[in-house]
Write a structure and sequence with these properties.
By secondary structure, the chain is α/β, with parallel strands linked by helices. 46% of the residues lie in helices and 24% in strands. It has 10 helices and 11 strands. The longest helix is centred in the first third of the chain and has 28 residues.
Length: 274
Amino acid sequence: MFKLLQTFIAVYETRSFSKAASQLFISQPTVSVHIKQLEEKLTVRLFERNGHTDLYPTNNARRFYQHALHLLDDWQAATASLTIEANPVKTQVVIGASQTTATVLLPKIFEKLPLEIRHRVHFKIEMHNSEEILVGVLNKQFDLGLIEKPITHDFIVRDSIAVDQLVLAGDLSSDTWLVREKGSGVYHYMQQYFKQEYIVPSQFLTISNNDVIVKMLSAGIGKSIVSIQSLPEHVPYQTLSTAFNRDFYLIHHQHQRTDLNDIIMALESIAKKL
């Protein structure tokens, strides 16, 4: 039954049998079988198709979704309590962090993180761009996300926890732009700057790593929009309007693990005081 519930939740949240299969590491036919078995047990229809690709949950599915989440949550809590009693281990929390938040924000947060949390939680940090982190939180690949791009989703809770100032830095007379990849937070703001200044860059390098961009700026190569906090003192820069004062966000799934509540509160409280 719990496998059927897991499959139902994945299909409901992704609106796709194939995406649910990929998320659960099972085949698409298995997903179809699980949904059919669950519908037979509940004697209701859970999903309707409109064409070959569009999948829509029925009213019954919408009502059942919250119950299914609570059932799985209770089961996981019950089994976890037995495991912890038999073999105490640290709670693992996986954080997906954008490159800027990982280098600028996370060290300051962890410096002030209470020892009690450090002792009982094993943190795992993975660096990705903002859009990849959003998808990872949706798919439960990450427990928490730290991003700088103002994006969200129906199943995501997003809280602003800090403010960052972006500047135009490097050789300001250069025609070469150093540009982050699509999906990153800085890419979003750089495109905004291009539109605002009616710029169509004739020469640009796409670099999917903020540290590499900063090192190239330090070497006098090109110009870019970067966080002032990541910029070495010797690199010249030009301040921008307040439209380029961006927020850093902490995101998590709407239905998060209950043992994350105090961790989220601690991270947000520390970040907002920095």
